[in-house]
Structure formats: C-alpha cells, structure tokens
Amino acid sequence: QKEVEQNSGPLSVPEGAIASLNCTYSDRGSQSFFWYRQYSGKSPELIMFIYSNGDKEDGRFTAQLNKASQYVSLLIRDSQPSDSATYLCAALNQAGTALIFGKGTTLSVSS
Amino acid sequence: EAQVTQNPRYLITVTGKKLTVTCSQNMNHEYMSWYRQDPGLGLRQIYYSMNVEVTDKGDVPEGYKVSRKEKRNFPLILESPSPNQTSLYFCASSLFVGFREPHEQFFGPGTRLTVL
C-alpha cells in the first residue's frame, strides 16, 4: 500500500515564526507532490505543488522536495493566526490517477 | 466562477435507503474523483474518472457506485447505505495530462453524510 506519512501534531508556533511541516512518501514512482490547507469542516485548498528536487517558493510558503530521501516539506514564514489549519501532504501516484494523502498536520499559530 | 459543486451538503438517512450525491464542475475538466474523509484515516479515494464513460476504483470502492455520462457530472451512488459510510465526502476535478504535468485538483465543498 502506497503511503504518505505526516506528523499529526499539533504543531504550535508563535505569530511571526517559521512553521516547518514534513512529509515522507513510500512510492518511489510518485513524481509530483502537493500541499493542501484545510480548515475544519471545509474543503482542501491547494497551497502549492512541487515536482523537481530542491526548493520552490511562493510568497510566504516554500516547498522542498528530496526524491532520494522521499521527503517533502513545507515552510511557512511569518506565520499568522489565519494559518492555523490542518496541512495535507499528497503524492500523485505513478499512474497519475490518484492523490495519496497523508493524514495531515494540525498547525496552531498563537498571537 | 470556476467551481465544483456538490449536493446535498448535509444528509441524514437510514440504513438501506438508496441515495445519490451529485457533483458537477464547470471547468471542462477530464478528471474527476470522489474521496471520503474520516477522523484518523485522512482522505481516501473511492472512485475516479479519467473522462466520459471511463471510471475506475480507488482505494475504498466497496458499497459505492459512480457513473460519468457527461463530462461535467460525476454522481456518487450508495445503493444500500450502512452506518460505516457515515463520513465527509469530497468530489474533486482537474485537468489531466499525465503524472509529469501535475494539475491542481479542485475540491467541492463537501457532503456530510450520516447513516443511522
């Protein structure tokens, strides 16, 4: 069974700090990875995706991918209370037919 | 406005009473998918469709049916619902051009289903 693993948290950081969220995946055939944010009871919203080794930055968010280590991370700089949510890491399976989601990491940003 | 819509948003029903959850997208996406989300288990794929009349099972297809007669619609059918199908259901859609060109999956607002 292909899996994506995340620490469930909660991860607590003060406002203005950097939040670091991590994810590992088991399927070496996965090429593309996604970070979604989900507020309680709401649908997931895409933050960013990454498919090349290295870093990808978008505003306050930076995704990092290391395919050799099968590791994906998301850094949130200058964390805000509105960033408090569950962050879902997902890997697109090799066939491109399904996103395999981790169980999510809950982030709490205190003001 | 580009969106995925689902109906109903909330549904309480009884065991064995057939129901359909509708999903519609207005983005001309080829790919559509159904997920269920349960505490401690995360999002799991039920069924997906690569295009009209092309559907396939995901990880947890038991007890569900789908159809894709039109590109925009992808209904989820529970022929004989049971309490273990109580869950939060999401429909999603995206363009599909293969795994090397990832595209965002847009999620609907969710349907909270309770089966008594």
What does this structure look like?
The complex is a heterodimer of chains A (111) and B (116). Chain A has 111 residues and is mainly β. Chain A has no helices and 11 strands. In chain A, strand 9 and strand 10 (99-101) form a beta hairpin. The mean pLDDT of chain A is 94. Chain B is an all-beta fold and 116 residues long. Chain B is built from no helices and 11 strands. Chain B has strands at residues 4-7, 10-13, 19-25, 31-38, 42-51, 54-57, 65-66, 76-78, 87-94, 106-107, 111-115. In chain B, the strands form 2 sheets. In chain B, strands 2, 4, 5, 6, 9, 10 and 11 form a 7-stranded mixed sheet that branches. A 4-stranded antiparallel sheet of chain B has the order 1-3-8-7, with no helix packed on it. In chain B, strand 4 (31-38) and strand 5 form a beta hairpin. Chain B is globular and about 40 Å long. The mean pLDDT of chain B is 93. Chains A and B meet through strand 5 of A and strand 5 of B.
Task: Furnish the topology, listing elements before pairings.
The complex is a heterodimer of chains A (111) and B (116).
Chain A: E1 4-5, E2 11-14, E3 19-25, E4 33-38, E5 45-50, E6 54-58, E7 61-66, E8 71-76, E9 85-92, E10 99-101, E11 105-110
Parallel strand pairs in A: 2-11
Antiparallel strand pairs in A: 1-3, 3-8, 4-5, 4-9, 6-7, 7-8, 9-10, 9-11
Chain B: E1 4-7, E2 10-13, E3 19-25, E4 31-38, E5 42-51, E6 54-57, E7 65-66, E8 76-78, E9 87-94, E10 106-107, E11 111-115
Parallel strand pairs in B: 2-11
Antiparallel strand pairs in B: 1-3, 3-8, 4-5, 4-9, 5-6, 7-8, 9-10, 9-11
